[in-house]
Amino acid sequence: MEIHGDSRAAGAHWEQLAPGVVRRRLPGWDATVGAIAGGTGVLVVDTGSSLHEGVEIRREVQELFGLPVTHIALTHPHFDHVLGTAAFAGVQVYGAVGAAELLLRERDELRADAVRHGVDPDVAAEAVELLVPPHHPVSGELTVDLGDGRRVLLANVGPGHTAHDLAVLVDGRTEVVFCGDLVEESGEPQAGPDALPHAWPAALDRLLALGGDDAVYVPGHGAVVDAGFVRGQRDVLAGRFGVS
Known about the structure:
The chain is an alpha/beta fold. The chain has eight helices and twelve strands. A seven-stranded mixed sheet has the order 1-2-3-4-5-6-7. A five-stranded mixed sheet has the order 8-9-10-11-12, with helices on one face.
C-alpha cells in the first residue's frame, strides 16, 4: 500500500519506512507514532500526548492512505504515547496484558505525570477523563489482519521499560519493528519508577529475536536504527543495571 496521491501536506510530517508503513516524530518529547496500511484499514502505533495530537494523527493518516484508522496498538502506558487515543472513536485498541487495568487504576498519576512534563493541566485532565484503555490484551503474540495480505504481529516482549511493553512487527521485503520506549535513540533510555531494569536486557533480546538482523527498528524516541544499535543498547543497559 503506497501513500495516497493527494496527501503532500500531511505527508510532510511522515517518514516512509516501507510500502504502506510510515512514522512521525511528534514535537515536544520526540515521541514516535506509526501507521501501517492494509487493504481495508490502518493500524496506528501510539497516539500522542493529547486529544489534539490524536485528532491530527487520525486526520493525517486518513489523508495519507485514503483509508480509515481501524486499529491502535499502544506500546506502553505512558502519557506521551496514549493520551490521544480518545480521538479515535470506534477503533479497536490493543495493549500488553495488564495495561488497561493500570491505565484505569492510575488515571490521577497519568495526569500528574503529563503535567509534570509540561502538558497544560486542562489538556491533560480532558485527555485522562476521556481515556480509552486497550480493549484487547496481548499476552504472547497476536496477529491483526488489515486486508490485502497485510498482517501485523503484536508481541508482548516486556517487561522492561514498563511492566507492559508491546512491540509491533510488520513483515515485508523490509521488516519493520516498532519498539516503543524499550529502545530510544535521541537520548539515554529512561528508567522511571515503573521500569523493571533487571528484565530490560532480556526484553531487548526478545525484540531482536522478533525482528532479526536485517529489520528496521523504530525507537519510541529518536531516529530509526538497526539491530546493531539495539544490541549495543542492550549491552549498555545490562552494564548499567548489573545484569547479564
